[in-house]
Specification:
3 strands, 2 domains, rod-shaped, alpha+beta, 2 helices
Length: 87
């Protein structure tokens, strides 16, 4: 998957009087944006629920005996998707 700059694509289409209409081929040629996909805590292999509550904690640093509370929508640079799922 690649993330495209939709604004640039529409602007380019409007230059040729397409008024925002673009074909699948033109979309495939669209410029990409500089972005990184993240794994949200709720989808991360290191995130576990605390005693069936709404509190999640990160087990990445478990060897330090430190539980770090995390929101389910949070993320970090160490996130790894559970079961190697891909988008």
């Amino acid at each position: 998957m690649r993330l495209i700059d939709a604004d640039a694509l529409i602007e380019s289409a409007n230059e040729f009087e397409a008024y925002g209409y673009v074909s699948a081929f033109e979309i495939s040629l669209a410029p990409t944006v500089d972005a990184v996909q993240v794994v949200r805590c709720k989808d991360c292999r290191y995130c576990e629920r605390y005693n069936d509550s709404d509190i999640y904690y990160c087990t990445y640093f478990e060897n330090n005996y430190m539980l770090i509370p995390k929101p389910d929508y949070g993320y970090c640079s160490r996130g790894e998707r559970k079961d190697d799922e891909t988008d």
